[in-house]
Amino acid sequence: MEDNRIGENITIKTACDEHGSDLESFCRTHDVAICKTCLTSYHENCSDFIIPLEEAALNVKTSTALDGVSASIDGALEKLQRVIEDCGMVSTNIEEQEKNVKKSVQNIRFTVNKRMDELEEKLLTKLSETCSNVKTKNVEFITHLSRKNDEIKRLKKQTVQLKSFDSDRQVFLGTRQIDKIVHEEIESVKVSLSSVRKYIVEIEVNQELTSLLENINSFGQIKIQEKAVSIPFIFENIDQAQTQLYKPVRSVHNTTFNFRSKFSLKEQIKNLEITGATTLPNGHVLIANYTSDKVLIECNDTGQHIRNIPVSGMAYDVTVIDGESIAVSHGESKRMDILNIENGTVMNTTDTKGSCWGVSCQDNRIYVLVESEGIVAMDKAGKIMNTIKCNRSCFDIVAVKDKIYYTDYVENTVHCCSMTGDEIWVFSDKYLVCPRGISVDNIHNVFVAGLMSNNLFIIQNDGKVSKMLLTESDGLNHPIPVCYNKNKKVLFVCNDSGDAIFYNIV
């Protein structure tokens, strides 16, 4: 085993870790240097893509690859330092947000206290008025009884005075008269006593207030929302350096897939015609629904519905521009909007000469399929950079690095061209009918959905080899949007009716 040491910290291994033999070959399929034992043990099916290590390393010293890597490292350090500085602002922002939350709590407390003071004052005023009225009634009743008491005392005095009369006749008549009056007064007192009341002053607390106090266990909840922040960390120099060293190739015949999840958008929206989709920086899928509901549908990679984003018109296709914005095409409305991905605010609107169909973004340049115009390349402000002619029957597009891929559903063809429109290859297959949705993996192999053939093809990056990955038996029924998550290696396919499937691509 031989190790070549460069400087103090870098060790370059020239022997296989597993078998101890010299690394003699390079597998372009798996992007790895291998020994003879590796070749027979793990790479028997890669014979077409095995080259001598010397051939893979040919002219590496004279290429600009290492210079490109060095420049990319400098760029990475610069961007990383910027990210560190931005992250350092998090504590400052949290402190400011903490102050705002405290102020909100104090404002709520002030509002509650003020309202409670108002209710208390209102209740105590009512208490005072009620008690005053009751006391007044009671005083009036006592006064009435006192008058009765005085009247009966007067009658008693008159009774005593009768005894001083000499005539029995006068005593008799006076007695009868006084007895009648006494009887009337006693009956009157009886009636008055029947209305005697004892008062108990209480409070019946509003049940809503009681329920509120019983049900509230806390003033509120402190929540921290963690939002994924998309920080583009892509360096073209590294990609160019790797391309100069070798060109990775993977035969599409070796591509397999594993079912991940399946779900239906019908549970969220009844009126569906799914025509486009894209992968967001946080791994979620944003889906275009070309109906009068005028929404984009966001789901995570398990199919869980996250939210609907209202848009200004029927959304045909959608693409990510950067971590903050997306572009949405509006089909026959002949318009494309750029939206803030967080709140859905329209940042810019561009009118097109024809119907605005498929849309894709590469290096902040937006590529739109405009009917009767072709592929129109423009910047975020809507300034047209160039136009590539293509058939009117081209609806779906994806732009990746230095190439554009699009489908022609009438001619049943898949096209690959340069950014200036120079055709690189054209693919067709009798089993691929009405190709529509299109996406590209990490090494430019192309996924295409057959709308009428109800299948999904993968086409090798040279356009010469293909494989049918999915068919109607896998649940495809008029599939249109296809998008591939390059980081997670997850493929999203959706029928126009809203039935969607996620697959892990191996």
Describe this structure in words.
Residues 14-44 form the B box-type domain. This is B box-type domain-containing protein. InterPro entries: WD40/YVTN_repeat-like_dom_sf, Znf_B-box. By secondary structure, the protein is α+β, with helices and mostly antiparallel strands. It has 3 domains: 3-58, Classic Zinc Finger (Double Stranded RNA Binding Domain, 2-Layer Sandwich); 80-215; 250-505, Neuraminidase. Helix content is 30%, strand content 31%. The chain is built from 6 helices and 29 strands. The protein has helices spanning 36-42, 53-56, 65-162, 168-193, 207-215, 236-245, and strands at residues 3-6, 10-13, 25-27, 32-34, 50-52, 257-264, 274-279, 285-289, 295-299, 305-310, 317-320, 325-329, 335-340, 346-351, 356-362, 365-370, 374-378, 384-388, 394-400, 403-408, 413-418, 423-427, 435-440, 446-450, 455-459, 466-470, 479-485, 490-495, 499-505. Strands 6-29-28-27 form a 4-stranded antiparallel beta sheet, with no helix packed on it. It has a 4-stranded antiparallel beta sheet with strand order 7-8-9-10, with no helix packed on it. Strand 8 and strand 9 (295-299) form a beta hairpin. Helix 3 (65-162) runs antiparallel to helix 4 (168-193) and helix 3 packs antiparallel against helix 6 (236-245). It is elongated and about 160 Å long.
Extended strand count: 29
Which consecutive residue ranges, at least 5 long each, have pLDDT under 50? Answer: 234-247
Mean pLDDT metric: 87
Question: What is the radius of gyration?
Answer: 44 Å
Indicate how many domains the architecture comprises: 3
CATH superfamily of the largest domain: TolB, C-terminal domain
GO molecular function: zinc ion binding
InterPro entries: WD40/YVTN_repeat-like_dom_sf, Znf_B-box
Organism: Mytilus coruscus (Sea mussel)
Domain B box-type: 14-44
